[in-house]
Amino acid sequence: MSNLETTYLGLKLKTPIIAAASSISSQIDRIQQAEKAGAGALVIRSLFEEQILQEALKFEEDLAVGSESFAEALSYFPNIEFGDAGEHLMWIRKTREAVDFPLIASLNAYSPGTWVKYAHKLEETGVDALELNPYAVAVNPKMSGADIEKTLYDVVKAVVNEVKIPVSVKLSPYFTSLMNVAGELEGLGVSGLVLFNRFLQPDIDADKETVTSKMTYSNPYESLLPLRWVALMSNTLRLDLAHNTGIHTGKDAARALLAGASVVQVASVLYRQGIPYLSTMLHDLEAWMEERGYSKIEDFRGKLSAQEVDDPFTYERAQYVNLLLDQK
Ligand SMILES: Cc1cc2nc3c(=O)[nH]c(=O)nc-3n(C[C@H](O)[C@H](O)[C@H](O)COP(=O)(O)O)c2cc1C
Fold it and tell me: Exposed, middle or buried: residue 104 (CB in 10 Å: 0-12, 13-18, 19+)?
């Protein structure tokens, strides 16, 4: 039997497949299912600033007219299943007691003070690590790329200084110089990067002439963007890389590990196939390792990273040029 153990953010994981941040973490029995199926860890769905505002509103309402009118006041805010920030934190504490595998909290805020305050509160719940999810669409024409990066660095620096647990950042793929941003984050003390955040895109229903926003699951083709960047970053950076998006099979996980990822994070496949399918993925990964005589992850991790392959430009422009030439 192969050994699937790996380390991520300084944590020892039994397997390299992590349940990504998603609503799977809204029910304890589903979290227990993920642990039973062999997930190395689980990222709890993000605590969003909207939930924190919801809590602030609740407090003001309680002070003003008593808690009975709270439900009405809340209807002004987006419907967030997880309740307010206090409930979210309480929920994480309960989850911590119910499972043994590592839990990673996730935070998405926009004001600097909120990032720091809630990073600390999340740490106090007993989670093993913190994933920062700086999901925001840059629409302010007055903010340059450098401004946006500085805002990110300021937040990350403040959070890393505030908490003792390891911190990872779930990055957007849309930075002009990803390698530079990754290097800066490493310099600030970030322990890992999650490549990448998957932005849901709004759509337009031409029949109803309305804007729609619906959840779509990823497809395996989407794994190629993170795969390329894992391969490019894994020899250059010391921090850990989590491949996120489009991992649907054990072999997909093998591809990410070959590129140099420490772990893969999965969400869509667990919704499509059910949480127990995670054990099939692990079984398939193990079978793939055994066929090749790999007894542990380190036997092959990074074997196909950019610096290990004969032609490192395979991961850059050369690949595209070759394809064009092949077609002539
Ligand atoms: C139902 C659902 C809820 C999600 N909620 C969060 C969230 O709270 N925070 C977050 O960072 N990502 C969230 N995600 C994104 C996933 O963590 C993951 O990055 C994305 O789905 C890509 O991975 P996949 O290809 O395995 O689905 C969610 C995804 C799904 C499907």
Answer: buried
**Cα(23) to centroid of ligand 1, in Å?**
8
Q: How far is the CA of 19 from the centre of ligand 1 (A)?
A: 9
Mutate to test the pocket of ligand 1, among 17, 22, 221, 269 (most ligand atoms within 8 A of CB): 22
Q: Which residue has a Cα nearest atom 30 of ligand 1?
A: 22
Give me ligand 1 centre to Cα 279, in Å. 20
How far, in Å, CA of 71 to CA of 65, rounded?
12
278 CA to middle of ligand 1, Å?
A: 16
pLDDT tens for each residue of the chain, 328 residues long = 789 999 999 999 999 999 999 999 989 999 999 999 999 999 999 998 878 777 665 544 444 443 333 333 333 333 445 578 899 999 999 999 999 999 999 999 888 888 999 999 999 999 999 999 997 788 899 999 999 999 999 999 999 999 999 999 999 999 999 999 999 999 999 999 999 999 888 899 999 999 998 888 999 999 999 999 999 999 999 999 999 999 999 999 999 999 999 999 999 999 999 999 999 999 999 999 999 999 999 999 999 999 888 887 788 865 566 666 666 6
Q: Residue 54: what are its φ and ψ, rounded to 5°?
A: -60, -40
243 with 195: CB under 8 angstroms?
Answer: yes
Ligand 1 pocket residue status of 170, Cβ below 6 Å: yes
Residue 23 CB–ligand 1 contact under 6 Å? yes
Total number of domains constituting the chain:
1
The pTM is what?
0.90
> Would 307 be classed as within a structural domain?
yes
Within 10 angstroms of residue 14's Cβ, the number of other Cβ atoms is 17
For ligand 1, whether the C-beta of 106 sits within 6 Å is: yes
Nearest-atom number in ligand 1 for the CA of 218 is 25
Tell me, yes or no, whether 1 lies in a domain.
no
CATH of the domain at 147: 3.20.20.70
Asked if the structure places residue 43 within a domain, the reply is: yes
CA 239 from centroid of its chain's CA atoms: 15
